[in-house]
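Reopening this ticket.

The earlier resolution said the output was attached, but the attachment link was broken on my side. Pasting everything inline this time so it's all in one place.
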Amino acid sequence: MSIVLELAKARRCHILSLTLTIVAVTVLWCAAAIGKQFANPEIIGSPATIIDHYPKIMIIVLPLVVAIIVARLTTIEHDHNMLARLFTAGQNMRSLFWAKLSLILVISALVLTIGLFGVLVIGKFQGVAIDLKLSLWTLLLLVLVAAELAAPLLVLGLRTDHQGVVLGLGLGLAVIGALLQLAPLPIQFLFPNTQIAAASPTSWVLNAQNYVIGYVENPAGIARIPLVAVIAVAVVVISAIWHTKKEIEL
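Inline output:
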């Protein structure tokens, strides 16, 4: 199935407008947090201090964004017995999976980039320079996690016409992210979105009273991003194999 056809379906279900709305709220959330932080005269006005808020909030928001994209893209296949028609017309399960996953990742990468750009613009208004390398590491980490979230949710979405299940899992992961983003490192690697905290490209700076006064680049976190990439590739491959091996009930 051509990704162009999938894109036409996505336009009909208003996926981009929905996800951009969520990301816009996220940017406003970041703006409020940055404004409050920069009101403190002790704050370190570094690029890392600006960027840090975005991935931390995405630990909660990204599962919801991906779940919404998956639910909207798979719902259309269950309407009017569309899957049966596609398979009758010669569509196979492998191409269906990869076309949809590709589109999900394109949309995810687009909205994540727009959101990050919005946060960087906020930083410019605060007089903080843009750190391109740190921004790209952050974006790469978020896209990898989006892939890790999307693949199993897509397999589930294609096998159930109750998309509340997909959205419920997204919400559940958002709650887990809120609870475990400060958990020990091994626990953070158990869930896709908490891996954002485990491999965060930024780390906090504390003053003498142990209050956070800013953020700096975190080489240890950046060094873990390849591990997140390996996990993401493994999850996508396993999901693809599972999808092609298990028949969809039509």
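Reporter confirms the inline version is readable. Residues 44 and 214 are 5 Å apart (CA to CA). The two ends are 18 Å apart (CA to CA).
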